[in-house]
Amino acid sequence: MAATKSVTRERVLAAGVALADADGLAAVTMRGVASRLGVEAMSLYHHLPGKKEELLDGLIDLVAVEIAQAVSEQPAADDGWVTQVRARCLAARSVMLRHPWMPGLLGSRTTIRPAVFQLYEDVLGAMVRGGCTYRLAHRAMHALGSMVLGFSQELFSPGDAGDAEASEAEMEAMAAALPYTTAMVASELHDAGDPTLGWCDSQTEFEFTLDLLLDGLERARLTEAPVLRLSPG
Amino acid sequence: MAATKSVTRERVLAAGVALADADGLAAVTMRGVASRLGVEAMSLYHHLPGKKEELLDGLIDLVAVEIAQAVSEQPAADDGWVTQVRARCLAARSVMLRHPWMPGLLGSRTTIRPAVFQLYEDVLGAMVRGGCTYRLAHRAMHALGSMVLGFSQELFSPGDAGDAEASEAEMEAMAAALPYTTAMVASELHDAGDPTLGWCDSQTEFEFTLDLLLDGLERARLTEAPVLRLSPG
DNA sequence: CGCCTCACCTTACGACGTATGGTCACCTTA
DNA sequence: TAAGGTGACCATACGTCGTAAGGTGAGGCG
Known about the structure:
The structure is a homodimer. By secondary structure, the first copy, chain A, is mostly helical.
């Protein structure tokens, strides 16, 4: 890890993201990031005045702009709010998949970064311009936010049994204790094409849930007193 | 913190939960937990063979059984799967509110504890017995799971401005950059009864989202080929 | 009595965040 | 060109963490 250029705030943050992507958020230490830049830990403090919190906030900012870019690179069809919000959620998810540590990091910080507020503002604007009341849009923020952030934590994690050496007896005991779960996995595995590809396509699951929410929200919008607001305020 | 009884695995885990509730998950250190029991850090290793990971797993187990208890203490009406699943999600949330560190802890572990599998099994069983296909139930697990776990992270956190000394200019700059968000907060604040109580009743928001999902799932169930399965397999 | 075992403790190591205070190349400015 | 300042990086050190290794003393048992 020899230094080829001088250390800058940008290079520090980029190294932090790279480290987190490669080895997880726990690997993002002052010494670890510094060594990626061919530098000692204490050198980072010249570029990140606010200690390590500043570094973590910087990681959030970087991912937030990455999401914003992914959003802006889309067709930008003016199809209606559902299509627009859907595209934004999918863009956010696609970026989160590249940085799976992001939801956990966001949850661990106490304040919200302006760049993240901007992402919400963007979705909120699309909904309000599309004819949603602020009340409904507010509820959508909660619903969509918790889904986008929660979905990265794959619940039934891949490689759950791990090194394939989970004892046979243990598996059978589990199957006995979890009859419905066992049957579900068997059923889904059977329906899936290639069993080696994993029994659960989480992208499909994500889109299903997203559409469930969006359909419900649109239905709620039509039920509400139809207040048209084309600009905030 | 004088010891009155001998150290047991149960007392260690209980101390860990108490510490996490009081001072957050970061305060759950070997030395911290030990001192709560009037004991030194290394003494814990006799009762938790597997190092600190064992302690954290134990915290998850404790909360999981707390959720299971909350579920079992409910009326247990046989109203249909929507009612049953709804009650389970609300019970899980009520327990999580007492232990706000739980979602983050769950997300940070790589394997899933049997006690947590049991919670999913319970919901899954209710859905399948209620006439849902495994496919639909599987999707519901993802949707409901990500919501229950994601909702604890209050997105627009209370005390966001913090010590009320967030500079006026800063607030105005924020309002200018986030017109829709500003308008939303103003609108919701106006509609809410008591402005000092916070502008966002997250319990209401949670139930709204939950019902959105449950309504959507039930609608999907009715649309699907109605396969009746009263027992797993 | 001697000895074992269990429960708890002491000490120590390496990694962490970071306070304090160098060191040294480079830029003024006269 | 010499004097002195400045900015970027580093060495050392402190207190915290998890935990490896081994010590200590009380109670049980032959």
